[in-house]
Design goal:
Layout: E1 2-6, E2 12-16, H1 22-25, E3 39-54, E4 60-61, E5 64-74, E6 76-77, E7 80-81, E8 85-101, H2 106-136
Parallel strand pairs: 3-8
Antiparallel strand pairs: 1-2, 3-4, 3-5, 6-7
């Protein structure tokens, strides 16, 4: 079977099911699909709207993030096992996560790292001088 997806560039891409990464397109692909008499599978899927704003481009994306929980049990009614069942429950969160991508210049990156290195040497010098003074017994 061939799965057709839309990429961000607009061109149509086709992937074979064997080529699809299991964890990216089919998160439930590793679940056991066999079912015994009376087994019930209950999935709770929680969806959260997300906004990703990029400060350097005009393109904003609005994906949904989700989590799921799976509950498995064997159902009986009057001592008789029920037929296998599966339930999907959707829970839409009223919250929205907003991420803003901010790209900093190379000068900010360099100055932060130089400050970190300089602070490390200053603290090491302080400890060295304190140990030197303690060794000579100069605080009385």
């Amino acid at each position: 079977a061939v799965v057709s997806t839309q990429s961000t560039g607009g061109e149509d891409m086709s992937l074979d099911e064997e080529e699809m990464p299991v964890d990216q397109f089919n998160t439930l692909g590793s679940e056991d699909r066999s079912s015994l008499e009376g087994e019930t599978h209950d999935y709770l899927v929680r969806l959260v709207r997300t906004e990703v704003l990029d400060m350097n481009s005009e393109e904003d994306i609005f994906p949904y993030q989700y989590t799921y929980t799976h509950r498995h049990f064997v159902g009986h009614h009057n001592g008789v096992p029920l037929p296998p069942r599966i339930f999907f429950r959707l829970d839409f969160s009223p919250l929205t996560l907003k991420f803003t991508r901010v790209h900093e210049s190379a000068l900010v990156f360099i100055s932060r790292h130089l400050a970190l290195i300089g602070g490390t040497f200053a603290v090491l010098k302080l400890f060295y001088n304190g140990a030197h003074i303690a060794k000579e017994g100069k605080f009385q």
